[in-house]
Amino acid sequence: MTKLLTIGASAVLSTLFSFAGEAAVTETVLHGFQGGADGLSAQGSLIMDSSGAFYGVTQSGGSANAGIVFKLTAPPSGTGTWTEEVLHDFAVDGVDGTFPAAGLIMDASGALYGTTTSGGTIGAGIVFKLTPPTNGATTWTETVLHSFKGGNDGGVPQARLLADASGALYGTTTQGGGTEPFGTVFKLTPPAAGTTSWTEKILHSFSLSGSATVGPGADGIMPQADLIMDSKGALYGTTSQGGAGGVGIAFKLTPSATGATTWTETILYAFQGGTDGSNPAAGLLMDATGALYGTTVSGGDFDQGEVFKLIPPTAGQNAWIKGQAYAFKGGTDGSGPRSDLIMDASGALYGTTEGGIGNSFGTAFKLTAAPSNVIATGLVETILHNFTGSDGNAPAAGLLLKTSSGSIFGTTTGGGTLHNGGTVFKLAD
């Protein structure tokens, strides 16, 4: 199962794939963004349809410099130039969204869903749907499913949406919510029969004042990351700041009981900064045992960020146990990871760092368990690729596998041969 999230499919917490042999990994730039109509600054993880085409967003570029939604199609012969198609060009018109920062999801009909960080009726961002053309038409149709209003309603969504089996959408906003504008977790329910409006419900508003459940100052603030859902419908995520240590938390939201209206937040872990890690900007990954993995942008043993593991409480215990699975050292080792992790069938983890050689260009990495005959703690890192600038710079999004070939694909926010506009790249052995 790839990390292509589909509406109507069961919630999947792990991304399982196999990537054979890292000894001779080759990077190929499939597309370099050039600004203007082509888009600028690729953001968010890619998704892939059944034909092998990729979909994503750029945060700027387009006719109004407000971002685009794009599709990349492989050349018919398998070699040569990939073709970019702009599916939607965001317009600064007070209704359309502007500056998308998160990846997309796709439903069974091929429609795309996403968010923008601003735009909409008051400029606080939107949730949108793009419907494929029908009956010989060529234009995709945008529908604004929700326009954030700020305040209690939330605003400035930066994370990819999550869909449940009913077609409801879940996400986070970095601002808004209650009397303290520190972010929300929201749910959008599809229109009832005979109606056209989606219904928003705020599941949780983050607050420095806390609540009776989490206590003053313990709640996280400013969630930037994707959510995941377990088999019981509980949501898991991170906040980039707040918590008892002030530098972010990992949290769980449990659905309300029948007849109740409030979801219950549980703080799974509050980061303390320093060697403990700080400022998680990526979502969580859950393995088959229920353990959670994620990254922090800073902190760790070398203050260059870390990969962490949270182990669920054992019988009779309440506390989750945090371990540092890998501490980045900077330089060619990578630093500042912001991407979601993915996991293969052997338990190896893959991701990206924004920093790399000279702490500037970034890496794609793999983490595996130490060989049984080596005394070591944590995981062992293999650098799959160190970006050089001309082939991409500062990858901030997670990676995607094309299962038919075993190749890995991703985006960079900058770099490329023209205009530093970012790239779509391929890694293959």
Layout of secondary structure:
Blueprint: E1 6-7, E2 26-32, E3 40-48, E4 54-60, E5 68-73, E6 83-89, E7 97-98, E8 105-107, E9 112-116, E10 118-119, E11 126-131, E12 141-147, E13 162-163, E14 169-173, E15 184-189, E16 199-205, E17 220-221, E18 228-229, E19 235-239, E20 241-242, E21 249-254, E22 264-270, E23 285-286, E24 292-296, E25 306-311, E26 321-327, E27 342-343, E28 349-353, E29 363-369, E30 379-386, E31 400-402, E32 407-412, E33 423-428
Parallel strand pairs: 1-8
Antiparallel strand pairs: 2-33, 3-4, 4-5, 5-6, 7-10, 8-9, 9-11, 11-12, 13-14, 14-15, 15-16, 17-20, 18-19, 19-21, 21-22, 23-24, 24-25, 25-26, 27-28, 28-29, 29-30, 31-32, 32-33
Which key features would you list for this structure?
4-stranded antiparallel sheet, 5-stranded mixed sheet, 429 residues, mainly beta, single chain, Methylamine Dehydrogenase, Chain H, disordered N terminus
Number of DSSP-assigned strands? 33
Question: So what's the overall shape?
Answer: globular
Average pLDDT figure: 87
CATH superfamily: YVTN repeat-like/Quinoprotein amine dehydrogenase
Helix content: under 10%
Cα Rg: 21 Å
Query: According to CATH, what is the topology?
Result: Methylamine Dehydrogenase, Chain H
CATH architecture term? 7 Propeller
Describe this structure in words.
The protein has strands at residues 6-7, 26-32, 40-48, 54-60, 68-73, 83-89, 97-98, 105-107, 112-116, 118-119, 126-131, 141-147, 162-163, 169-173, 184-189, 199-205, 220-221, 228-229, 235-239, 241-242, 249-254, 264-270, 285-286, 292-296, 306-311, 321-327, 342-343, 349-353, 363-369, 379-386, 400-402, 407-412, 423-428. With 429 residues, it is mainly β. It has a single domain (6-428), classed as YVTN repeat-like/Quinoprotein amine dehydrogenase (Methylamine Dehydrogenase, Chain H). The strands form 9 sheets. Strands 1-8-9-11-12 form a 5-stranded mixed sheet, with no helix packed on it. It starts with 5 loop residues before the first strand and ends with a strand. 49% of the residues are buried.
